[in-house]
Write a structure and sequence with these properties.
It contains six helices and five strands. The protein is of the alpha/beta class. α1 runs parallel beside α5 and α5 packs across α6.
Length: 167
């Protein structure tokens, strides 16, 4: 967990199982690098449905602004969160099933009208964190500057590689 002086968590990283931690850790690493506060929890939409509802309903009052939810198979943690709050939810379909994450992808993108879940690629938790940063950057000048700096640094690295390859 990454705390601000006010102890306000900006992003929640949630996953359906302990085995999902290595895939979801990439999101935590990105958020940390951008100075974005987060908490990371295991919450199963099917095994702990009451806790998921309680978490979703209390998130906004605790200062959480975006939730990243990763789950595999047909587990629908992102949908359960989206059904119970109005915060932006970014779904991360996770591989590991016999269908290599296609089942999780379909479960995550097929939301009914009025219950949106933004969805990234299978195992794309890093991109989920970058999307969360873009959402936060709309109102947070520090996040905006940190993200701009990140993009400029990445662009400079690629430019240097391009120049080196041409030489």
């Amino acid at each position: 967990m990454n705390d601000t002086p006010e102890n306000k968590i900006q992003v929640a990283i949630l996953m359906g199982s302990q085995s999902d931690i290595p895939k979801m850790q990439k999101a935590a690493d990105v958020l940390k690098s951008l100075g974005i506060t987060y908490e990371m929890l295991v919450l199963s939409a099917h095994r702990l449905p009451d806790r998921v509802v309680e978490y979703a309903k209390s998130a906004e009052t605790r200062g959480i602004q975006v939730m990243i939810a990763g789950a595999g198979m047909a587990n629908h943690l992102a949908g359960a969160l989206a059904a119970n709050c109005i915060l932006p939810i970014i779904g991360v379909p996770l591989s590991g099933s016999p269908l290599n994450g296609a089942d999780a992808l379909y479960a995550t993108v097929q939301m009914p009208p009025g219950v949106p879940v933004a969805t990234v690629a299978i195992d794309g938790s890093a991109n989920a964190a970058y999307l969360a940063a873009e959402i936060l950057a709309l109102k947070d000048p520090l996040v905006r500057e940190n993200f701009k700096t990140y993009k400029q640094t990445e662009r400079a690295k690629l430019e240097a590689q391009f120049i080196a390859q041409k030489s």
